[in-house]
From TrEMBL:
It is a multi-pass membrane protein. The gene is secD. This is Protein translocase subunit SecD. It comes from the Bacteria. GO terms for cellular component: plasma membrane. One of its GO terms (molecular function) is protein-transporting ATPase activity. The chain crosses the membrane at residues 244-260, 265-285, 291-315, 336-358, 364-388. It comes from Melghirimyces thermohalophilus. The lineage of its organism: Bacteria, Bacillati, Bacillota, Bacilli, Bacillales.
Length: 413
C-alpha cells in the first residue's frame, strides 16, 4: 500500500500549529483570566436586607435594585469583577477580590448614603438624593479653598423656590443621620447647584461624591458574617492547585501513551488543546476563576480523557473482530459517539442544577464544568477523530501494535 505523505504533512502542520499557539499565547491567556477571592485574596461579606421604613417589604426587585446599587459603589473601591449574588429572600453576598482595606469596604458597602436637605430644625426633609442629577456630584472646593462636594439638582426651579423660602435661615444637609453642614441661605440660588462642605480632605470629598453618584441603598444592610483571604494565602492556594493539576495531568499523559500508543499520543495533543481552549474561553467570557473552578478544569481533563478512552476501546474491539484499521476506526468512532454524548449530557444537567441552586463558589464550579464539557466535544471527540483519520489514511501505521492491539488478539472476539 502506498504511503500518503500528504496526510502526514497535514497532521504534522496541525501538531505544530497546536503546540506553537499554546507556547506563544498560553501564558498571556492565563494571565488575562480574572482570579477569584480564594486565589488572589480579598474580602467577602454576607448581608441581610432589612426595611428602612416601617411597612417596607423586601421583594425580589428590591434585592436586585440593592445589588445594582452595591455594584455601582464597588467602583468607588476600584475593584474589578466583583461577585454580587442574591441568596434566598433577604440575603446578598458580596465577594471582592483584591480588596486590601476591609474597613473601607465595609463602610462604602453598608452605608445607606441617603442625602437629605432639611428644614432649619432638621426634622422635615425638603429634598433628597433622588433629586440629584445622575452623576451630578463632584469633588470641588468651597469659597475658602477647602475640599467640598458640588451637587447638581434635576430641577433648578425647585431648588430656587426652596432657597427663596428660607433666605436668612440655615438648611442642614445630612448624610443618613449625620449632619454634614448647615449653610445659611443668603439669597435664592437659581442654577440648581449646592455645595456640601464639612471639613473634608480631598480624598473624603471625592469618595462622598462617588458615593452620592452611586445612589442610596433602597434597604438597610445588616452584616451577617464576613471573612477575608490574605493575598499570600490566595497565591499559595493557586500555586498548590496548579502543581497538583500538572502532576495529575502528567500521570494521565504517561498512562494513555503507554497503554494506547498512537491514539494515546493523539489524546495528549487533544488534551493540550482542550486545556488551552478552556482557559481561552474563561478569558473571553470573563469568568472569575476560583479553586472550585480549577477543580472543575482538572475534572474536565479527566472527562476528556474518558471520552478518548471510550472511543479507543471501541476501536480496539473492532480490530479484535478482525476489521481493518480504517474500518475499525470508522465503526469505533460511530458506536462510541452516543455513549460519550449521553455521559456528557447527564453531567451538563447536573452542572446546570448546581448552577441554579448553588451559591457563588458552587456556581463557579458549574460554569467551569459546563465550559469544559462543551470544549471537550471540540477536542476529545472532533479533533481526536480528525487527527486519527489523518494518521490511518496515511497508510504509515498499519501494524495493530500502534493501536495497543496484539496480533494474537485479532480474531479472538
Amino acid at each position: 500500500m502506498r504511503v500518503r505523505k500528504g496526510k502526514i504533512v497535514i497532521f504534522s502542520l496541525l501538531v505544530i500549529a497546536i503546540l506553537a499557539t499554546v507556547l506563544l499565547t498560553g501564558k498571556q491567556v492565563a494571565q488575562d483570566i480574572t482570579l477569584g477571592l480564594d486565589l488572589q485574596g480579598g474580602f467577602e461579606v454576607l448581608y441581610e436586607a432589612q426595611p428602612q421604613e416601617k411597612g417596607q417589604k423586601i421583594t425580589e426587585n428590591t434585592l436586585k435594585d440593592t445589588a445594582q446599587a452595591l455594584s455601582r459603589r464597588i467602583d468607588v473601591l476600584g475593584v474589578t469583577e466583583p461577585q454580587i449574588t442574591v441568596e434566598g429572600e433577604d440575603r446578598i453576598r458580596v465577594q471582592l477580590a483584591g480588596v486590601k482595606d476591609q474597613d473601607k469596604a465595609r463602610e462604602v458597602l453598608g452605608k445607606p448614603a441617603k442625602l437629605t436637605f432639611r428644614t432649619p430644625d432638621g426634622k422635615k426633609v425638603l429634598m433628597d438624593g433622588s433629586d440629584l442629577k445622575e452623576g451630578g456630584a463632584k469633588q470641588d472646593y468651597d469659597q475658602s479653598g477647602q475640599p467640598a462636594v458640588t451637587v447638581q439638582f434635576k430641577s433648578a426651579d425647585k431648588f430656587k423656590k426652596l432657597t427663596q423660602k428660607y433666605i436668612g435661615q440655615p438648611i442642614p444637609i445630612y448624610l443618613d443621620e449625620q449632619q454634614l453642614s448647615a449653610p445659611v441661605i443668603q439669597e435664592a440660588i437659581p442654577n440648581g447647584e449646592a455645595i456640601i462642605s464639612g471639613n473634608f480632605t480631598a480624598e473624603e470629598a471625592q469618595e462622598l461624591a462617588e458615593l452620592l453618584n452611586a445612589g442610596a441603598l433602597p434597604v438597610d444592610l445588616k452584616e451577617i458574617h464576613s471573612f477575608a483571604v490574605d493575598a499570600s494565602l490566595g497565591k499559595e492556594s493557586l500555586q498548590q492547585s496548579v502543581e497538583a493539576g500538572l502532576y495529575g495531568v502528567l500521570i494521565i499523559f504517561i498512562f494513555v501513551i503507554g497503554y494506547y500508543r498512537l491514539p494515546g499520543l493523539v489524546a495528549v495533543l487533544t488534551l493540550i488543546s482542550y486545556t488551552y481552549l478552556v482557559l481561552l474561553a474563561f478569558s473571553l467570557l470573563q469568568v472569575t476563576l476560583t479553586l472550585p473552578g480549577i477543580a472543575a478544569l482538572i475534572l474536565g481533563v479527566g472527562m476528556a480523557v474518558d471520552a478518548n478512552i471510550i472511543m479507543y476501546e471501541r476501536i480496539k474491539e473492532e480490530m479484535r473482530y478482525g476489521k481493518r484499521i480504517s474500518s475499525a476506526l470508522r465503526a469505533g468512532s460511530r458506536r462510541s459517539f452516543l455513549t460519550i454524548l449521553d455521559a456528557n449530557i447527564t453531567t451538563i444537567i447536573a452542572a446546570a442544577v448546581l448552577f441554579y441552586f448553588g451559591t457563588s463558589s458552587v456556581r463557579g464550579f458549574a460554569v467551569s464544568l459546563i465550559t469544559g464539557i462543551v470544549v471537550s466535544f471540540l477536542t476529545a471527540v472532533a479533533l481526536s477523530r480528525i487527527m486519527l483519520n489523518l494518521l490511518v489514511r496515511s497508510n504509515l501505521f498499519r501494524h495493530p501494535g500502534w493501536f495497543g492491539v496484539k496480533e494474537s488478539e485479532i480474531g479472538e472476539l
